[in-house]
Every structure is written in C-alpha cells, then in structure tokens.
Amino acid sequence: MLKNIMGAGNLEKKKCFIVTPIGGNNTEIRRHADGVIESANEPILIDHDVELFVSHKMSDPGSITKKILEHILEDDLVIANLTSLNPNVMYELAVRHAVRKPVIVICEFGTSLPFDVSDERTFFYTNDMKGVVELKEALSVAVKHALNDETPDNPIYRASKEINIMKTIEVGENDTLEKYLMNRLDTIEAKVSSMNRNVNDVKVQGNSRKAARTSHDTFISIKIKKGISLIDLTHIIINVEDVSLYENAEVNERITDIETETLLIPGDIVTFRILARVDSISEFKSKINDLEYVVSSHGEIIKA
Question: Is 84 exposed, middle or buried (0-12, 13-18, 19+ CB in 10 A)?
Fold first, then answer.
C-alpha cells in the first residue's frame, strides 16, 4: 500500500514529490503509476531516508493544486514520470525547472519525448518485473546524486541565464541595450581593421627585403622514373614551388585519352604548362629532378 513516509520524529527528513499521470481509480494509467511508485520509487526513497509525496495520496485539507505547487516548488527532490506525456505532468515539470531544483525524469520505453526535453537526462524503463529491478538500480544512483546537486541544470535555467547576462551588461544612462551592442560591434570592427592593416604592413616589409621573384609562363616536360597517377604527380609539382597549372597535361603517344587517374609508367614523358614563381627555370627544373618519380626534366620559358 502506498503511503506517506512521515512520522512525528522525522521532521528533518528530505522530501520528494512524485509528478506522474494519475487517471481514475482502477484505470490502466493509475495502476501503471502506482506500480512504478510502489515497486521502484518508494523503496529507493526509503533507502535514502526521504519522505515521499504523491498528489492522489495526499489527504490534507485545503486546495490540492496549491499543495501540489508547494511541493513542486519547495521539496528537495521531484521525480517526474513523463510516460504518456500527460499535460499536467509537463506543466509541473516546467514549474520545477523554473525554480532550478533537483528533478529526476523517468519514462517508459517507447515514449517520444518533446524536443525541448529530449536532450535532458531521462531514465527509461520497461514496464515489467525485470524493468522494476533495472529502474531501482538507476534510481538508487540518481537520487543520491540529485540530493547533493547544488547547481542542477535544465532548459529554463540555461535560457534565463543567457537573458540575465544580457540584462546585466553595464550600459550608459541614456543608452539602450541595442545601442550598446551596436557600439561594441563598431569597436570590434575597428580593431579587426587595424589588425589587418598591421598584418599587411608586415607582409610588405617582409617582401621588400626579398629579391624580386618573377612568375614565368613555362612549358616543362618530365620523364617518369616510377609509376604514379597523373593526379598525384600534379599535386606533387604544385607543392614543389608556387606553381599554377594552366592547361591539361600532355603525355607521350602511349596514352591517347588522358584522365586524372591515368597511370604513368617509367619512361613516359609528361608536359605541363605552368606558371612558376622562381628566380630561374633551371632552379625549378632542379627541384623537379630531385623528385623520386622523375628521371629528368627540361623546360622552356614562354614569356617572363
């Protein structure tokens, strides 16, 4: 039999209110709710020396709604069962979230939670005897943690925290928050522009200390030493120096249909038209000749 666990000498006990669908007497909803409370919630709360309260078992005179809200607002812990997504349950959970006090959410497997609580920690259970054992194990750990949690987190708290941050920003006597934010954005933009100018100044100063390097429009032919795909060879050449490939490569007569995945074999000669930033074509050819895939190369500047 479900009962309130409170005696005259237990006034210092912590309290837990159960938020759950109720339904009418002897309905499936009521039997489900009472089954979860009596077989899982109540034994765990007894183990932790916590009083249990549930709305349909409270016999005190007065407004039941007022008493329910008092428990939701004041009790040390709330356990909310979201099974069937009962509107009253969802409302009462929101009230608890609003006061940022510990709450444990449980729900029967198969329930599709609304998006605004779907990311919150929820203990799902199966409504059978094995499910009772599993739920009790989960609740035993959760209750202990919740009762010691001084800074519980929830969607309402996170949203209100962001709003409060905005409200507590110091603004001038005649400034609106919007005006303040616009001024701050203008300041940030000015600092970024200043940083960009400084970076450009450094680049110019650095370039002025280097010998001028001319871009050469060039044909270069490469004799292949080891098997490699055309696309891989292209990437290697581009990484050798500051190089841009102007046109598709041309390969000797062995290959008539050139594709990026064309496999080059030893002895093939590949010709690229490139734009290379080098002091001389011989410097560039020297770097190409050092590649493990290349036997030799020769090039010709088309225009400087």
Answer: middle
Give me the pLDDT at residue 140, please.
93
Mean pLDDT of 98-125: 91
pLDDT of residue 103: 96
H or E segment and range at residue 77: strand 77-81
The pair of structure tokens assigned to 294 is 């290349």
Burial class (CB in 10 A: 0-12, 13-18, 19+), 75: buried
Share of residues in the chain with pLDDT > 70 (%): 60
Helices 281-289 and 230-240, interaxial angle, to 10°? Answer: 130
Q: Rounded to an integer, what distance in angstroms lies between the CA atom of residue 41 and that of residue 30?
A: 15
Nearest one of 128, 163, 284, 138 to 218, comparing CA atoms:
284
Tokens standing for residue 45: 């709360």
Backbone angles phi, psi at 159, to 5 degrees: -65, -45
Helices assigned H by DSSP within 241-301: 281-289
What is the Cα–Cα distance from 44 to 49, expressed in whole angstroms? 9
Q: Is the dihedral of CA 153, 156, 162, 168 positive or negative?
A: negative
Alpha-carbon torsion angle 80, 83, 84, 88, nearest 10:
-10
Mean pLDDT of the chain: 75
Tens of pLDDT along 45-78?
Answer: 999 999 999 988 887 766 788 899 999 999 999 9
89 CB neighbour count, 10 Å cutoff = 18
pTM confidence score: 0.52
d(CA 288, CA 296): 8
- CA-wise closest residue to 153 among 82, 106, 100, 74: 100
